[in-house]
Amino acid sequence: MTQFDNVTVIKKANVYDGGKVTSRVVKFADGSRKTLGIMLPGEYTFDTAAAELMEILDGELEVQLPGSDSWQSIKGGESFNVPANAIFKLKIHSLVDYCCSYFE
């Protein structure tokens, strides 16, 4: 899917790590939501409330998922899942354009 139709976009950005990670919330008629964002190179730790699907639209990163000591390489066109109530780490190697879907 390259576009979302009939949605509400929250104008105010979510800004993390001094502006190195930003996103905007997209709300759908069925109550579901996604965020569209950009991550600049760096290392980040995030926590989740809901389960997430992270779709990497462009860029390269490594992810360390909960319960794993290893890092997995991810590039544009790939995705990964993060369980609810978890902590995961990212190493961003080049600007990453992403879409995050939440499952509550």
TrEMBL record:
Keywords: Glycosyltransferase, Transferase. One of its GO terms (cellular component) is cytosol. Its EC number is 2.4.2.1, 2.4.2.2. It comes from the Bacteria. Transmembrane segments: none annotated. Gene3D superfamilies: Jelly Rolls. GO terms for molecular function: guanosine phosphorylase activity; purine-nucleoside phosphorylase activity; thymidine phosphorylase activity; uridine phosphorylase activity. It is an enzyme of class 2 (transferase). It catalyses: guanosine + phosphate = alpha-D-ribose 1-phosphate + guanine; xanthosine + phosphate = alpha-D-ribose 1-phosphate + xanthine; adenosine + phosphate = alpha-D-ribose 1-phosphate + adenine; thymidine + phosphate = 2-deoxy-alpha-D-ribose 1-phosphate + thymine. InterPro entries: Ppnp, RmlC-like_jellyroll, RmlC_Cupin_sf. It holds the Pfam family Ppnp. Catalyzes the phosphorolysis of diverse nucleosides, yielding D-ribose 1-phosphate and the respective free bases. Can use uridine, adenosine, guanosine, cytidine, thymidine, inosine and xanthosine as substrates. Also catalyzes the reverse reactions. Belongs to the nucleoside phosphorylase PpnP family. This is Pyrimidine/purine nucleoside phosphorylase.
